[in-house]
Amino acid sequence: MAPAAAVGVALLPLASRRWVRHAISLALLLLLLLYLCAWSFRALSGCRSGTQSCIPEGTSPVQVPRQSGPLEAPEWEEPQCVGPQGVVGRVMWPFRASLNPEGDVALSQYLAGWRALVRFLTPLGSIFAFATSEAFAKVTTLEARVHGPEAAHYSSLVAMVAWERREGLLERPGIAPRDTTSSSGSRILLLLHRALRWSQLCLHRVATGTLGGPDAGAQCSDAYRTALGPHHPWLVRQAARLAFLAFPGRDRWLELACPGAGEAEARAALVRVAGTLEDVYNRTQGLLAERSLLQLA
After folding, report:
1. Contact at 8 Å (CB) between 115 and 172?
2. In this model, does residue 276 exceed pLDDT 70?
3. Per-residue pLDDT averaged across 82-107, rounded?
4. Closest CA to 218 of 198, 202, 234
5. Fewer CB in a 10 Å sphere around the end CB: N or C, the chain?
6. How far apart are CA 157 and CA 244, in angstroms?
7. Of 201, 193, 197, 225, nearest to 296 (Cα)?
8. CB burial string 74-92: b at 16+ within 10 A, e below
9. Global pTM?
10. For 19-48, what is the mean pLDDT?
């Protein structure tokens, strides 16, 4: 055998071993990214249980500055899908009903709105699976109190906070309970409140995005950085950024919002729903801030 050929044969096992090492490293990296993506969407409505809060200490503003711009829908006839039996109407009407005339938030209607929102988001794909399951668990836990033995104290946000404070049930800021079921109702509501802001911003930006502008994934990723990113650690934020690369397109959102309707009608419907969610968010934000509860989780 020629010397050059002998050297080539000798190098083959070495090259093969190097290829295997690189392949294993790449596989481990991909598994880590998948784990972080899953972890990030379990955390979309709050930090991991059993750990201290991810929020830096400091005073939180009474109202988050409006990020969504004007929420007025164009002057079209109201889309059928925002009626009480419409797809997005079933989300909008319970949330609207939760804003009672006394300036409070009715918890039963608020949670009914959240249930409808989870049903709307679930068909958008596996990227929402962790976020919606986490929100659903919080809704179910809080509903058990709204309809439980202490239901009289859980009729509204103001009543709940007053009772839990009087009974010493509120957590110390920065200390998270072991699981959702042992959380105070006020803390559960705060976590849902933050996730609602992300949902509202995402819906509005999907509805008002322009042709040739950022796609739905980029817009909802930006909404995440505004509403939830500040409450999550760095690793979760990076995993979320990667997960949004697989976000459903705008057409899919519009099709789910108003099946069979035209694009203009579906966009108008999402704008109306986003407007209602922002009204609920702003009232809740003000009530929680007045009671110094924005740092509870």
Report:
1. no
2. yes
3. 95
4. 202
5. N
6. 33
7. 193
8. eeeeebebbeeebbbbbbb
9. 0.74
10. 42
- Interhelix angle for 89-97 vs 263-290, to 10°? 30
Q: What is the CATH number of domain 87-291?
A: 1.10.3520.10
Give φ, ψ of 274 to 5 degrees. -60, -35
- Give the torsion sign (CA, 227, 230, 233, 234): positive
**Cβ 244 vs Cβ 224: under 8 Å:** yes
Q: What are the structural domain ranges in the chain?
A: 87-291
Q: How far apart are CA 153 and CA 159, in angstroms?
A: 6
Q: CA 26 → CA 15, 48, 241, distances in Å?
A: 17, 27, 20
Round to whole Å and give the CA distance between 190 and 185.
9
Give every CB contact of residue 103 below 8 A, 6+ residues apart in sequence: 283
Inter-CA distances, 40 with 2, 43, 163, 212, 218, Å: 57, 5, 33, 29, 17
**Hey, what amino acid is at 56?**
P
CB neighbourhood size of 36 (10 A): 17
User: Which secondary-structure segment (H or E) carries 6?
Assistant: helix 3-42
Q: How confident is the model at residue 165 (pLDDT cuts 50, 70, 90)?
A: very high
- State residue 293 phi and psi, 5-degree precision: -115, 5
